[in-house]
Design brief:
Length: 121
């Protein structure tokens, strides 16, 4: 059974870059045809799908975040990462990595436990 674990700093200053890594075990991130997503949930709001990297390395982003987000992977470590540039306090949220069968939150079947990121000076 696949397991996902997020890691990264819990506090980021405004205007800086938020960087998170998801370590995957129990399955390879290159296995067809899975998509590895980042999803966030701000306090008091619903979950927002941010983007995904596919088994073949293709990337997909939400329209609202594509100018600031970047998703990459390290196949040797079975990890994928999120960078979100120029953060503001509105980027404060619980961040989740997840696996699905399409680049969308609708097809996610496995989730990490999530990691809280606060944007504050």
């Amino acid at each position: 059974q696949v397991q996902l674990q997020e890691s990264g700093p819990g506090l980021v200053k405004p205007s800086q870059t938020l960087s998170l890594t998801c370590t995957v075990s129990g399955g390879s991130i290159t296995t067809p045809h899975f998509y590895w997503s980042w999803v966030r949930q701000p306090p008091g709001k619903g979950r927002e799908w941010m983007g995904a990297i596919a088994f073949d390395g293709d990337t997909y982003y939400s329209e609202s975040l594509k100018s600031r987000a970047s998703i990459s992977r390290d196949t040797s470590k079975n990890q994928f990462s999120l960078q979100l540039h120029s953060v503001t306090p509105e980027d404060t949220a619980m961040y989740y990595c997840a696996r699905g069968e399409a680049p969308s939150s609708y097809y996610i079947g496995s989730w990490g436990q999530g990691t809280q990121v606060t944007v504050s000076s």
